[in-house]
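User: I'm curious whether this sequence folds into something compact or stays loose and floppy. Could you predict its structure so I can see for myself?
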Amino acid sequence: MGLNGSGKSTLLRIIVGLLKPDRGDVLVDGFSVLREPEKAKSLIGFVPETPALYEHLTALEFLNLVLELWGYDLASKYDELVRLARIFELDTELNTLISAFSHGMRKKLAVIAALVHDPKVLLIDEVAEGLDARTRVSQGDPAWSEEARARHTHHDAYP
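Assistant: Here's the prediction. I'll summarize afterward.
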């Protein structure tokens, strides 16, 4: 947490390997983001402030693509994917084009995509931005805690 412009998003981008630090290093569960970037990145689920989603895909097609990028096939993770979609109230929208999603639905989809490979660390830039009041309140809910498995780290400019 910190003031606007204090470097929170920059730090997250360094941790996930999108930016190189001017000096120093970051360790993720003991793995250097500079010397062992693939291993460090494999431990992280990241939701940027404005997630890049393929609007011409359905939510399920997008999540399938994410799974393939992580080296999984849909069949091996389907039950987990549906479970996450149910928790984030997108289970009835899996066959809907992302272009039809509201901003909050897109943010929820990005969170599911960040969790689907079972990361040790979940980083969410501007965690409450774009989420409806019910979802914001539910961040204190056991579902969020369960999904983060006590690994949920977030930054938010709003205390």
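Summary: The CA atoms of residues 124 and 136 lie 13 Å apart. The helical segments are 8-15, 37-42, 59-69, 74-87, 103-115, 133-138, 142-148.
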